[in-house]
Amino acid sequence: MRLLKEWYDAINNATNVDAIEEIRISIFGKKGVLATEFAKMKTASNEDKSKIAKELNTHKSALMNELSVKKTELQTQELELAMQAEGLDVSLYSTSSEAGALHPVMETMDRIVEYFAALNFAVKTGGMVEDDFNNFEALNLPKYHPARDMQDTFYFKDEMLLRTHTSPVQIRTMMAQKPPIRMIAPGAVFRRDYDITHTPMFHQIEGLLVDEKGKVSFANLKFILEDFLKFMFGEVEVRFRPSFFPFTEPSAEADISCVFCKGDGCRVCSHTGWLEVLGCGIVDPNVFEAVKYENVSGYAFGLGVERFAMLIHQIGDLRSLFEGDIKLLEQFR
Length: 333
Ligand code: DAH
Prior knowledge:
CATH class of the largest domain: Alpha Beta
Distance between the termini: 70 Å
CATH superfamily of the largest domain: Bira Bifunctional Protein, Domain 2
CATH topology of the largest domain: BirA Bifunctional Protein, domain 2
Helix content: 40-55%
Number of domains: 2
Bound molecules: 3,4-dihydroxyphenylalanine
Largest sheet: 7 strands, mixed
Shape: elongated
Low-confidence stretches: none
Strand content: 15-25%
Structural class: alpha+beta
Number of helices: 11
Order of helices and strands: HHHHHEEHEHEEHEEEHEHH
CATH architecture of the largest domain: 2-Layer Sandwich
């Protein structure tokens, strides 16, 4: 067994992790010393066999232990040396000052506001905590109406909740002001959703225009939204599809031709060539009744800002907009 004893010294004298690995193979490898020693047992007498086996096994576990202790020690040493060599002093001042930039969602929101502000739409905000009346009831979403299910959210006490859309700002504005009205409402909204296209908090922009009865038509709405979508996305086709929203009648959803495949059909547009971008319609008479407006007509629309930002910057996963990873966000400057 003198042969094995030498290996303890070898381990002790190793100066780096690579050397340790070589020693490990020399001892425990298929052709290593242990294998050779065990093989020798075959020729020994039965009595010696058990003695040798016992001794060999004791060395085996002792050597294994020595190896792992030494390896950890050397690894720590190497790491410390590497850190010293890097010479990173986190307390040093930085000599360069990097210019920040707007988050893509805020940048998109600003651009949308820019379009409507130029047309004299006032910018209204409202609060993120709403009551049931403004968020649902006045928007023609009575209690127990099944359309409430589309917008499940976080409730507080006394029928207070995190607003599920920016539409309540329509109600607040009409309650506070006489017609005519021309407003947009940008802001954060909240829903109980989470997947690659939904986050519990996101941003919407609401639009509302109210004037004398008979003065506002669906044609006006179509014109302005088509012009707006071309301002945002460049030369795209725009189409309107009949849809349902409780607060507008008739209601529509606006689609643009897919910005990725130019309408040929691809994965993003589910091979339809079209991307849904907003909801809109002619304000339902029940909404005007709720805010006690008489002899008026109007149109409204609502859109998700993140969706616009994703389409403009070709971002695949909505959640990446909220992770705050600077390396990722920098790409959209
Ligand atoms: N509030 C709707 C939503 O969150 C969006 C919307 C659709 C707003 C149509 C409108 C509208 O004003 O007319 O899904």
